[in-house]
Amino acid sequence: MRLLRKILKGVSLTAAMFVFQACYGIEPDYCYDRMTFRVVSDKDHEPLPDIKVSSQWQSNQDYEYDWVLGGYTDSAGIADIGVTNYICQDTNVNFRFEDEQSQYEMLDTVFNTGLTDTIDIVLRRVQ
User: Fold this and answer.
1) Measured between alpha carbons, how far is residue 87 from residues 29, 31, 64, 94 in Å?
2) Phi/psi-derived region of residue 91, left when phi > 0, alpha when psi is between -120 and 50, beta in every other case
3) Residues 18, 44 contacting (CB under 8 angstroms)
4) Residue pLDDT, tens place only, 54-109
5) Residues 86, 59: Cα–Cα separation, whole Å
6) For residues 32-52, b (16+ Cβ closer than 10 Å) or e, as one string?
7) What is the homologous superfamily of the domain 31-123 according to CATH?
8) Confidence class of residue 32 from pLDDT cuts 50, 70 and 90?
9) Are 47 and 39 a contacting pair, CB within 8 Å?
10) pLDDT tens digits, residue range 44-58?
């Protein structure tokens, strides 16, 4: 009787795991890249804190994803941003840098996810 009970428990657990995977699937097939930016002003090259950094991934110019907030720069003007890479290869990603007080011009630019060094971004002050 004990052996039968253990076998039924094992079969029940296996069935539950099978149903869980069938409902929720396996881990998606994409990678996660990290990019680091240093944002400074154009006049005195002082670090700019609280600059909003967003990213937008593209695939072969046939469709685009929505802008995704990556984070804000810290007091040293540094933003370490995580970017979802849907093809797990070096690819171009659009980045947007903007301050919420509109003291600096918004900058849209494209970088390759294969870059590993800190990327310097210079924002121009609105006159």
Assistant:
1) 8, 7, 14, 15
2) beta
3) no
4) 988 776 665 567 888 899 999 999 999 988 776 777 778 889 999 988 899 999 99
5) 9
6) ebebebbbbbeeeeeebeebb
7) Carboxypeptidase-like, regulatory domain (2.60.40.1120)
8) confident
9) yes
10) 999 999 999 998 877
Which tokens belong to 90? 């070096």
d(CA 122, CA 40): 5
Chain centroid to CA 88? 13
CB-based contact 88:6 (threshold 8 Å): no
Half-sphere exposure of 106 (CA within 13 A, CB side): 11
